[in-house]
User: Which sequence fits this backbone?
């Protein structure tokens, strides 16, 4: 015969996980406006949609998992929103140039990545005692959030943004470690 | 509950809210007996167990939203108290429904009340007055129709006369009833 306390324990455990999942999804959905604006601005929504969905799912997962995973969400989003919003703002200024001849938009992604990298270097949790999860999740979230904005300019924008992110974060992280 | 257990519950709830699954079993072990006692103090024994279970499941469902600045025990008992209140309200509503549909309602005298009788008498008097105001042949047609009889006329003709008489009766009724 099943232990009634055991059954209740299982029910309570399921309720706990479901409650966390619901809250995580609600929090993840808060990112939808930013992803939606990026989707409205771009001419090729496929890649932006994929990276936007990836960002929402990753933030939702980290929120649900909690603890070290959750600690990386805020720094990642703070750093990632710079390269996410800068290209959208640049697009909104209405700059027009001949196809393939524009250097402004990749430069915007590079600057966004650089600023985001510096921010990431300053706010990312430092890996301590072999626990690098918060650092890794914050980097992943920053990268995904930045890619949602920079994919507006295709793979060039994305590549330049990642180079900027790396170039911005590395010296700051090294200085923090020293 | 002693101070040490209270402080332990607070720490455990904070860990659980943060996502530390290892705090689940200790929180369960502290809360379950506590909620059972709390429900037993406020409800009948057959209801207390179920309500305590529901409260416990709700507490764990909302554990992720627990604010560490709040008192864990007060928070948990608040959820349990709401559950108890809900059950009592449901019980009260069930009791009211039972009274409305139960044996007492069947015991009620099926005869019309004095008020219903007075209203019926009023309606009858008003109908007789309206019939009296109609031309005699219309009043006769309606009386025959009400009794289910038909004079030696074609059915379609009688139906036409009934319709005409009813239209006139409606018009008279509106006038005597004081409606436009």
Assistant:
């Amino acid at each position: 015969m099943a232990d009634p306390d055991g059954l209740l324990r299982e029910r309570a455990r399921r309720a706990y996980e479901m409650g966390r999942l619901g809250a995580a999804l609600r929090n993840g959905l808060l990112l939808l406006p930013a992803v939606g604006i990026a989707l409205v601005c771009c001419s090729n929504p496929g890649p932006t949609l994929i990276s936007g969905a990836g960002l929402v799912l990753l933030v939702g997962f980290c929120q649900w998992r909690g603890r070290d995973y959750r600690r990386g969400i805020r720094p990642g989003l703070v750093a990632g929103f710079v390269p996410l919003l800068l290209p959208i703002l640049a697009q909104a200024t209405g700059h027009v140039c001949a196809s393939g001849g524009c250097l402004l938009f990749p430069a915007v992604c590079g600057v966004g990545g650089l600023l985001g990298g510096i921010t990431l270097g300053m706010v990312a949790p430092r890996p301590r005692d072999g626990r690098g999860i918060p650092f890794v999740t914050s980097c992943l979230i920053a990268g995904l959030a930045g890619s949602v904005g920079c994919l507006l300019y295709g793979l060039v924008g994305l590549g330049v943004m990642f180079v900027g992110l790396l170039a911005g974060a590395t010296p700051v992280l090294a200085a923090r470690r020293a | 509950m002693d101070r040490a257990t209270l402080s332990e519950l607070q720490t455990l709830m904070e860990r659980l809210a943060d996502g530390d699954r290892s705090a689940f079993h200790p929180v369960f072990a502290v809360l379950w007996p506590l909620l059972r006692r709390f429900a037993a103090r406020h409800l009948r024994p057959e209801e207390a167990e179920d309500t305590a279970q529901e409260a416990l499941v709700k507490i764990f469902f909302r554990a992720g939203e627990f604010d560490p600045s709040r008192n864990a025990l007060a928070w948990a008992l608040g959820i349990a108290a709401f559950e108890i209140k809900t059950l009592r309200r449901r019980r009260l509503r069930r009791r009211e429904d039972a009274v409305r549909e139960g044996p007492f309602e069947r015991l009620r005298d099926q005869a019309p009340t004095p008020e219903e009788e007075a209203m019926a008498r009023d309606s009858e008097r008003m109908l007789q007055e309206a019939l009296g105001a109609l031309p005699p042949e219309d009043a006769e047609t309606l009386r025959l129709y009400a009794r289910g009889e038909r004079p030696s006329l074609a059915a379609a003709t009688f139906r036409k006369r009934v319709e005409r008489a009813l239209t006139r009766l409606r018009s008279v009724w509106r006038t005597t009833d004081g409606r436009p």
